[in-house]
Amino acid sequence: MSLMFTSPVLTPTIGSFTFSSRRSNYIVMSAVRSNSASTCPVLTKFQKDCDTPTPYLRNVANAIADDMRAGLAVEGGGDLDMILTYVDALPSGNEEGLFYALDLGGTNFRVRSVQLGGKKKRVIATESEQISIPQKLMIGTSEELFGFIAAKLASFVAKEKPGRFQLEEGRKREIGFTFSFPVKQTSIDSGTLIKWTKGFKVSGMEGKNVVACLNEAMEAHGLDMRVSALVNDGVGTLAGARYSDEDVMIGVILGTGTNACYVEQKHAIPKLQSKSSSGTTIINTEWGGFSKVLPQTIFDQEMDANSPNRGEHVVEFYPFFNNIYVFLFLFLQLFTVCVWMKLYEKMISGMYLGEIVRRVLLQMCETSDLFGQFVPVKLSTPFELRTEHLCKMQEDTTDDLQTVGSVLYNILEVEANLNARRRVVEVCDTVVKRGGRLAGAGIVAILEKIEEETKRMGSGKRTVVAMDGALYEKYPQYRQYMQDALVELLGDKLSHIAIKHTKDVSGLGAALLAATNSIY
Ligand code: BGC
């Protein structure tokens, strides 16, 4: 559904939003008060550095689009990997049979079975289970991680009710494997891990075929299953959403990590070279890697310098240098900062927003009397403050900011007066506003890239962006800031765009892609 509008005002719902010409009385309740004085120099500078007025956002959107083109031209052409996914056909609705989805991408993994009944019956039955991954497996060996997954998968299949789920005779159980990390895909059912993100650091896996790792573990557990499609969660979301809406062109994840995948015309992908140049294919942008023209602050740089990927890179170099090579070492450090920073992800996704706020508060504490004369110990602990805490604090509408007070007390073990609580909320709002607005600029870049090739909006066709991820779902202020950016950058063009919250469809999408790419 899309509505024409003249003066762009959003009419959002949690499920989806389109754009309306009537003034909406929807107000995101926020603890930010207009009368809150930000007299702290650290905060004032931070707010200035994070500012993203419309012309700035326009530059960001243009720069992302330029890097998309560069990444489509040659491998490594720009900050965005623009990975070829080998998904040329999205679900049509005709898919039939029993398929599975395995989803690994965060602290939990999910396994799902889906009995598909074709155009008429659609999803006949589905069952799923979510299992949390023990912390030690996220930084252990690949055998440990995949062994754990295979064991859980085996017990899930063993519990299957034969009446509800039926595997056709002579067929193996086929899996759509959603692996939500940057992967260089080599075919629809294989790909090598480029690097871990989101706090994962399983040893010896970078450069390895992730499907082979899963296959070995399944074999060891006597599981006769095969991976028919290896997909990113953005691709899964796009495919799952497309099953019920043929205008879905983009899948965006805004959760612990972030990414966007979209339908591209093959003729617009020079790096496809010899392959057929007609039709469309899905591109996994890995937009989290974008790092140009972003409003970086010292806090972003310091967080990046201390993040697992960045830290690891420095440690790998360090032993090879002694004092006389200090200059060379520093040069290499600078080089690795330029090459490895995934700044966009670190500015817009759920894993990092709380940590940026913590770092700002720490400096405010050290340079002024934010919480009295002392610096709370917990404020010096990385990742102690999480994005969900920011959300709780921003939703506080009480006059004395009670919830803010209790979050600060429970999480950081600090008693904060009203003035301090206000300042904390201002920091949260600054970080969340920048994140939401930058995410909006990214979506605009992709919408405009699609329009450049297809002219679909110009010809009055509707274009749908499927959104998923806890940050988008659970943080109303973030959503609102993202939507504001879309309105500012797209103006009238928004009338044919719908932003849809498609919760948890990536598992369905992966199972559907397993069906589309079935070997039978
Ligand atoms: C990964 C992407 C993934 C995204 C959302 C990022 O850290 O690099 O592959 O799609 O998180 O889960």
TrEMBL record:
GO cellular component, one term: cytosol
Gene Ontology terms, MF aspect: ATP binding; D-glucose binding; fructokinase activity; glucokinase activity
InterPro entries: Hexokinase, Hexokinase_BS, Hexokinase_C, Hexokinase_N
Transmembrane segments: 324-343
Domain Hexokinase N-terminal: 43-243
Enzyme class at the top of the EC tree: transferase
UniProt entry tagged with the keyword 4Fe-4S: no
Matches recorded under Pfam families: Hexokinase_1 (PF00349), Hexokinase_2 (PF03727)
Pathway as given in its UniProt record: Carbohydrate metabolism; hexose metabolism; Carbohydrate degradation; glycolysis; D-glyceraldehyde 3-phosphate and glycerone phosphate from D-glucose: step 1/4
BP GO terms, sorted: glucose metabolic process; glycolytic process; intracellular glucose homeostasis
Start and end residues of each Hexokinase C-terminal domain: 250-316, 342-515
Matches recorded under PROSITE patterns: HEXOKINASE_1, HEXOKINASE_2
EC numbers, comma separated: 2.7.1.-
UniProtKB keywords: ATP-binding, Glycolysis, Kinase, Membrane, Nucleotide-binding, Transferase, Transmembrane, Transmembrane helix
Top-level division of the source organism's lineage: Eukaryota
Family per record: Belongs to the hexokinase family.
Classification via PANTHER family: HEXOKINASE, HEXOKINASE-LIKE 1 PROTEIN-RELATED
Protein name per its UniProtKB record: Phosphotransferase
Protein's organism: Arabidopsis thaliana x Arabidopsis arenosa
The organism's taxonomic lineage, starting at the top: Eukaryota, Viridiplantae, Streptophyta, Embryophyta, Tracheophyta
